[in-house]
Amino acid sequence: MEYRRTAVIKLDVPQDADSPLRETVEQFKHCANTASEWCWHGDDGYHVTSKAKAERALYDQLRDETDLTANLVQKGVRRAVEAVKSGVARLKRGERTSQPYFSAESAVYDKRSATFHRDHVSLSTVNGRVECDYILPDDPNRHPRTYLDDEDYEFRMATLQRRDGEWFLHASMRKVEADDPEPYTEHRTVLGVDIGVNNIAVSSTGTFWSADEFNHWRREYEKRRGSLQQRGTRAAHEAIGGVGRKEYGRFEIYLHGVANELIEEAVEYGCSHIVFEDLTHIRENIPQATWQHVWAFRRLFQYVEYKAAEHGVEAVQVPPNHTSQRCSTCGCTHEDNRDGEHFECLKCGYQNHADYNAAKNIGFRYLRRRQNAADGGAPVDVRLNRGTLNVSGEYVPPATTDGGIERESTRKPYPQRARSSDRAK
Known about the structure:
The protein has about 425 residues and is an alpha+beta fold. It has two domains: about 1-175, no CATH class; about 190-395, 2-Layer Sandwich (Nucleotidyltransferase, domain 5), CATH 3.30.420. The protein has nine helices and 18 strands. It has helices spanning about 15-40, 50-65, 70-90, 145-150, 210-230, 235-270, 280-285, 290-310, 355-370, and strands at about 1-10, 105-110, 115, 120-125, 130-135, 155-165, 165-175, 190-195, 200-205, 210, 270-275, 315-320, 340, 340-345, 350-355, 380-385, 390, 395. Strands 8, 9, 10, 11, 12, 16, 17 and 18 form an eight-stranded mixed sheet that branches. It has a seven-stranded antiparallel sheet with strand order 2-6-7-1-5-4-3. Strands 13-14-15 form a three-stranded antiparallel sheet. Strand 4 and strand 5 form a beta hairpin. The protein is globular, with a radius of gyration of 23 Å.
């Protein structure tokens, strides 16, 4: 089994290294914004979404204009191409959008532009390499030491970010283990979580976190950016950066709140794992998602992952195949089972909110991956609002029950969470 984690590491940056790092980030943004401009308008009247084409056209120019290494120039171009791809997808859906603009103080590193160690990192800058020690908690069981102290976790790549005058490394790490049975001795439950455009998260316990507020402000910030870009002045261009910082800050607060409440939900129900769908191909899996949604989904998982670890809960991802089309009651899988937000099984007639049904299936997918006849471990169930769903797909009512009725929430905007008396099993 493969585990992927993001370790958020605060860096102790030497005084003489701050300026080179800031200039490196500025030049990285220059590469990304130059590539965004070129890809958005295209060289033949069409948007460019090919990384190879963009690199061929811009590589030499950007190497001449910056002091960055070849790898950092390429990473800047590729960041822009990914954002333009998302924008083109929105245009095809008839949504209003504008050319991507990068204002966040960040740069992307991989093993060619950075050397990752367990206690420090060596980063390529416009003025050679700089080494920064990690600022880590004393408690070895706290994030991110739990990953850094585990030699089985390997560094893959990282995003360097500067926030409020401090430097952070968001390191992507991977650990691969054989699917051997683990010696668990007590019954465990997991919390399935579905993510989406209308509801940022829906849990298998029937709690909905509405995305109404997120979507409202996403549209507002898009309008502001579009208006400023139409002016075309230097002042307007600088103001776009301020809009991006405000947007980032507002969404950060929102996502931290959702993450905290998801963890509260897991702790309340005694869950050992919080299960999300694999976010690797989230753009293809949720085609109506904007680039802000994709960013929010990934950031939400990062927050849940490191916050949950402090409570002894692990956040994991599973393949999302057909989780939106499968009936969580009888297992029938058909694309006609789902119609927008409504789910009705063609075989057994089960009806419910489609996102809630998907959340149960995501938890169930983890069960099937974890537990089989030869596993030898303790049983694992999906936690529902009332009772659980076992690995055989059977509903198990709680010891004290009011007729075995499982309940889901009404859809209220975050931060409110509520559960209604709608029959949800």
